[in-house]
């Protein structure tokens, strides 16, 4: 009788020879379970590892007319910075910020998130670090990380490459949905500070500072007070929980999440026909990273403003007599904000919906 081969002599599976490591994937799931469990709300049923995640929808019985809200997004080329620096436990804040803060702008509470991580080769500790950041951001937002997928794509992605995306679902009372229908002429615009670039415009930033100027991520930049890599990897601010609390205290009419396309384009999305907005640049000083990109890359101000958030992560539209109260309440939650403009009537068909006027304050 021919003896069976020992484990050491076992023939690799055809799948592993093709570049897919099933055991590494299983180890990654084991490592991430602890982080995921910490995000679970009472409505979450079961644990990680099933074919689907369960969320007890009886929570909807607490609403008079519930409306579900959903959003999906990714992190974009900021993942290239995380990979180059071999720091993977912050990129999750960028993903969750892009997801849940698209829900909060309509007044919806994010309930749960599912994520998707595609990689060239599963390195369990690295995948667990990515999920650790996603879970930490979910806890800050008050939502559950319900499940996800890690997919190994050898030949499509290099061994150390990965991309991350996700989706979120939440709910809002129909009568409480925020948006253009509530906005009125004379409403105040209140800006909420970003932590930096957040997760948008990295193709421009990487091209200008890394490709064209040849700067290294480990380069210490005096204007930034730290290395370029540390600046570029600054996590996105997750606003959801704080803004959900605010709209219970102050009658906010609409909110704009300033992501791809810059301040003017995103603010225009929450303005009704016939109304525009004037944003006063001289009410804030953008962080130094924005000026560096403009100066080093010789980027025009219109191009810069149409790509980057310029230091504003959210804009609230609310009655002018409640603007200072909103600023004060956000300060109490550790968010810096300020009155930055006004909703106005449009004066003609050719007028832009949002006008940025004046010059930025010096940093």
UniProtKB/TrEMBL annotation:
Pathway: Purine metabolism; IMP biosynthesis via de novo pathway; 5-amino-1-(5-phospho-D-ribosyl)imidazole from N(2)-formyl-N(1)-(5-phospho-D-ribosyl)glycinamide: step 2/2. It comes from the Bacteria. InterPro entries: PurM-like_C_dom (IPR010918), PurM-like_C_sf (IPR036676), PurM-like_N (IPR016188), PurM-like_N_sf (IPR036921), PurM_cligase (IPR004733). It is found in: Cytoplasm. One of its GO terms (molecular function) is phosphoribosylamine-glycine ligase activity. It catalyses: 2-formamido-N(1)-(5-O-phospho-beta-D-ribosyl)acetamidine + ATP = 5-amino-1-(5-phospho-beta-D-ribosyl)imidazole + ADP + phosphate + H(+). GO terms for cellular component: cytosol. Residues 184-345 form the PurM-like C-terminal domain. HAMAP family: AIRS (MF_00741). This is Phosphoribosylformylglycinamidine cyclo-ligase. The lineage of its organism: Bacteria, Bacillati, Actinomycetota, Actinomycetes, Propionibacteriales.
């Amino acid at each position: 009788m021919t003896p069976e081969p020992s484990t050491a002599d076992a023939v690799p599976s055809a799948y592993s020879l093709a570049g897919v490591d099933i055991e590494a994937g299983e180890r990654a799931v084991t490592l991430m379970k602890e982080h995921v469990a910490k995000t679970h709300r009472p409505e979450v049923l079961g644990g990680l590892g099933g074919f689907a995640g369960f969320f007890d929808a009886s929570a909807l019985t607490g609403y008079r007319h519930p409306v579900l809200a959903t959003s999906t997004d990714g992190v974009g080329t900021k993942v290239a910075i995380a990979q180059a620096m071999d720091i993977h436990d912050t990129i999750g804040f960028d993903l969750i910020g892009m997801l849940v803060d698209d829900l909060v702008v309509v007044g919806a509470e994010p309930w749960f998130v599912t994520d998707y991580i595609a990689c060239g080769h599963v390195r369990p500790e690295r995948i667990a670090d990515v999920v650790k950041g996603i879970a930490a951001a979910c806890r800050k937002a008050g939502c559950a990380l319900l499940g996800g997928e890690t997919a190994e794509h050898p030949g499509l992605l290099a061994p150390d490459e990965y991309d991350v995306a996700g989706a979120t679902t939440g709910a809002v009372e129909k009568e409480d949905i925020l948006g253009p229908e509530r906005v009125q002429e004379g409403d105040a615009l209140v800006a909420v500070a970003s932590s930096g670039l957040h997760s948008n415009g990295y193709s421009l930033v990487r091209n200008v500072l890394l490709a064209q100027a040849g700067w290294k991520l480990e380069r210490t930049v005096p204007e930034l007070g730290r290395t370029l890599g540390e600046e570029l990897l600054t996590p996105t601010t997750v606003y959801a929980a704080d803004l959900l609390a605010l709209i219970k205290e102050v009658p906010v009419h609409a909110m704009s999440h300033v992501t791809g396309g810059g301040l003017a384009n995103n603010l225009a999305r929450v303005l009704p026909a016939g109304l525009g907005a004037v944003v006063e640049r001289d009410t804030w000083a953008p962080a130094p990273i924005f000026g560096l990109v403009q100066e080093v890359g010789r980027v025009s101000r219109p191009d810069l403003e149409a790509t980057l958030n310029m230091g504003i992560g959210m804009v609230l539209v609310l009655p002018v007599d409640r603007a200072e109260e909103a600023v004060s309440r956000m300060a109490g939650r550790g968010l810096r904000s300020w009155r930055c403009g006004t909703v106005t009537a449009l004066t003609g068909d050719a007028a832009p919906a949002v006008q940025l006027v004046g010059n930025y304050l010096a940093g």
